[in-house]
Amino acid sequence: MSYQQIRLPENGKLIGVKNGKLDVPDNPILGFVEGDGIGPDIMRASLRVWDAAVAQAYQGRRKVHWCELFMGEKAAGLYEGDFFPGETLDAIRQLTVAIKGPLTTPVGGGFRSLNVSLRQEMDLYACVRPVRYHDGVPSPLRRPEEIDVVIFRENTEDVYAGIEYESGSDANRKLADFLRNEMGARFFEDAGLGVKPISPAGSKRLIRKAIQYAIDHNRKSVTLVHKGNIMKYTEGAFRNWGYELAREEFGDILVLEDDLWNLHDGVMPQGKILIKDRIADIMFQLLQLRPAEFDVIATMNLNGDYLSDALAAEVGGVGIAPGANIADSVAVFEATHGTAPKYANQNKVNPSSLMFSGVMMLEYIGWNRAAELINRAFVEVMKQRTVTYDFARLMDGSTTLSTSDFADALIARIHA
Ligand code: NAD
Questions:
Q1: Which of 79, 125, 133, 160 is catalytic?
Q2: What confidence tens digit (pLDDT) does each residue in 360-374 have?
Q3: Taking the model in full, what pTM does it have?
Q4: Exposed, middle or buried: residue 233 (CB in 10 Å: 0-12, 13-18, 19+)?
Q5: For residues 345 and 343, what is the distance between their CA atoms, to the nearest angstrom?
Q6: What region does 68 belong to: left with phi over 0, alpha with psi -120 to 50, or beta?
Q7: Is 115 touching ligand 1 by the criterion CB < 6 Å?
Q8: Is pLDDT at 106 greater than 70 in this prediction?
């Protein structure tokens, strides 16, 4: 495939996919999108950390060949104003695995979020957000070490589908007439209208991925989070389809919460995984008061958006929480925060969210030793209380480092 602006590194090899599994060479090409605002600062720092960990872990036997891809403001400069070039999407499909910095989305009309467009164009249906505590990170909880949760958020449906009709528009009037006159619906005059599609196929592929993750990573439970008491045919249906899938495809490994008490006296049988569900609003309380009861969570788009930021705040905030958007094989890892424009090009912010997204990426391609080196180095750097400004203001007696110095501190521990 030939590209206009993208250059595939000559000595790297493409990742293959065989029988649904990644086939990763020792010199894979991985894509990266620098991102807008603070993106270049945190990407520059993180690339150095990932490369150092791979070099230390494999002593030259393995090496990532990075390929720069373009989206956002940098793309607009290269592709005559196009913020979302088609060839970047083609390259992500060809490379299978990529990582991106944050991208600007102007608020209000005319400009769809690039992040949402990317997820929908590439059908990256699972947003995966692991949230766990790293020793030494400032937290408002008394026992933050109890948090070790992976949220699987459905990425393509729900109110994010973009099916909305503006108050006063012709389309809005047409839909309002239909709803009132043919469906008997009642609502205020001139209400803006939005549609919340939740399908069995969309729900089941997300929940299947969450359950499979729980099995592959020896997790204890999967919780379906929904607001089905109010939205019965969307959120309630998500829960019902989840249990249907659990029975049909994973009946031998999953135990329903009712059965735990009816059949097993409340004691989980060895090697099995509990599947339960909780209403979304109480989840916000439970994740603060009893986080140890949760492990893998599967939920719809909007619930997942709120829940993952709230949970991240308990263990250091969005400056550190990593994330990924995953289809069946193609995966795009990303910082979970935005572009923080007021800090752009100041070499100041925390690169940890992007850096840990890269740790997830290394685990995704099976390079666990390199990932582990970064995890361990991070704990050591926290112990030294050498941190970026956002953590420094929460930690007494800490030293404030720039983005690049923080990366240097990590690299020094990786080599130690
Ligand atoms: P933001 O996450 O960019 O920033 C909010 C605040 O969080 C910042 O002012 C800063 O105090 C703090 N912060 C964020 N990242 C940090 C880091 N790495 N280290 C230390 N502190 C950090 O959110 P916003 O201001 O609401 O959004 C700015 C822009 O980013 C908007 O255009 C928005 O659409 C976009 N955005 C993009 C993504 C994405 O690309 N995935 C996600 C969220 C927002």
A1: 160
A2: 999 999 999 999 999
A3: 0.91
A4: exposed
A5: 6
A6: beta
A7: yes
A8: no
